[in-house]
Design goal:
By secondary structure, the chain is mainly beta. It folds into two domains: 5-148 and 156-161, UDP N-Acetylglucosamine Acyltransferase, domain 1 (3 Solenoid); 165-317, Hexapeptide repeat proteins (UDP N-Acetylglucosamine Acyltransferase, domain 1, 3 Solenoid), CATH 2.160.10. Helices cover 3% and strands 38% of the residues. It has one helix and 43 strands. The strands form five sheets. Strands 2, 4, 5, 7, 8, 10, 11, 13, 14, 16, 17 and 20 form a twelve-stranded mixed sheet that branches. Strand 42 (305-309) and strand 43 (312-317) form a beta hairpin. The longest helix is centred in the middle third of the chain and has 9 residues, at 135-143. The protein is globular. It starts with a strand and ends in a 14-residue tail after the last strand.
């Protein structure tokens, strides 16, 4: 008997511990990497639409009870306490630790290793504590939970779920849609997860992985070309403006919840969670785009650069060959 609820279009992968009354909403993905469980979701916690939660052996996800995440949140290897209220589009990065009874404003980014004390109100990119909770804040948290903030013992259901993906064509492959005379072409060794959708003039190269909830649209505006051994992770969107092209070269990793629009991304680059790369931009080889950054239209980034910010600016140099991050998909 399942003690929690999972929407039809949500996906659970790997080893997970999920508490009684938890809810995983439409389009949300929980992916646990490694041979043992790396995600724990407490009793009556809710992860709302199109959010992504990724746990790894190095960075476990531990979410307390009666914590509620808004739409399009991203959690990568973070620990988050009980009775937290998380605004839409908030991002928690590896090693961050959050206490109980915290409130996060929409679009907040919690930096790697950041410690947020219990009873904090946090906003910004990067997130900063602006004040402690008031009585009114606590009343709001209680009201949003039906005036019941009591916590029951955590007795999770343990499960291990294999991902629904298939190389080439098969019943577990995502949807491929023609547009006009153009039909997507996917190499027989590439994997397209079952809730991914690819439309029109799109080519996906050998060994590439298109994760759950990804949308790639190559309509009349121009071609989308994805190289070999590329990973495009959960709930990312790829599209482009008219008379343009979207080129992603070999060995690129694009993190969850990104928007990539009509640009060129050089080989070996890493685009971290929640970043936006705009039309006509060119990123050189081994570029690192930090989490939540915005690369403006027509930006040119030289090889081996690290860019960060909203808008993004060069903040350092990357190594000769970036390693694929822990939060990527590992077979």
């Amino acid at each position: 008997m399942t003690l929690f609820r999972v929407a039809d279009s949500a996906r659970l992968m790997g080893g997970l511990s999920i508490g009684k009354g938890a809810y995983i909403a439409q389009g949300t993905v929980l992916r646990s990497e490694g041979t043992s469980g790396s995600i724990s979701l407490g009793n009556q916690s809710m992860v709302l639409e199109n959010s992504v939660v990724i746990g790894t052996p190095s960075y476990l996800v531990d979410i307390g009870s009666k914590t509620v995440f808004g739409h399009k949140c991203i959690v990568v290897g973070a620990q988050i306490g009980d009775l937290c209220e998380v605004g839409n589009g908030t991002i928690f990065l590896p090693g961050s630790q959050v206490g109980d009874y915290c409130i996060f404003g929409e679009g907040t980014v919690i930096a790697p290793g950041k410690v947020v004390p219990s009873g904090s109100v946090v906003v910004g990119r990067p997130g900063r504590v602006i004040r402690k909770l008031t009585d009114e804040d606590r009343a709001m948290i209680s009201r949003m939970r039906g005036h019941d903030v009591t916590l029951s013992p955590f007795e999770p259901q343990q499960l291990h779920v294999e991902p629904k993906s298939a190389p080439g064509k098969g019943e577990d492959m995502g949807k491929l849609y023609p547009f006009g005379s153009k039909t997507p072409t996917v190499d027989e060794t590439a994997c397209v997860y079952d809730t991914a959708e690819i439309t029109g003039d799109v080519v996906v190269g050998a060994g590439s992985k298109i994760a759950s909830g990804v949308r790639i649209i190559g309509n009349t505006h121009g071609p989308v070309r994805i190289g070999n051994n590329v990973q495009i992770l959960e709930n990312t969107v790829l599209h482009l403006l008219p008379d343009n092209a979207l080129i992603i070269e070999d060995n690129v990793t694009i993190g969850p919840g990104c928007i990539v629009h009509g640009c060129t991304i050089g080989a070996g680059s890493v685009v971290e969670a929640g970043a936006i790369v705009c039309d006509y931009s060119v990123l050189g080889r081994n570029t690192l785009v930090k989490c939540g950054s915005l690369v403006k239209q027509r930006s040119v980034v030289e090889e081996h650069q690290i860019v960060e910010g909203f808008p993004a600016k060069v903040v350092g140099n990357s190594s000769d060959a970036l390693e694929r991050p822990d939060w990527a998909i590992w077979d």
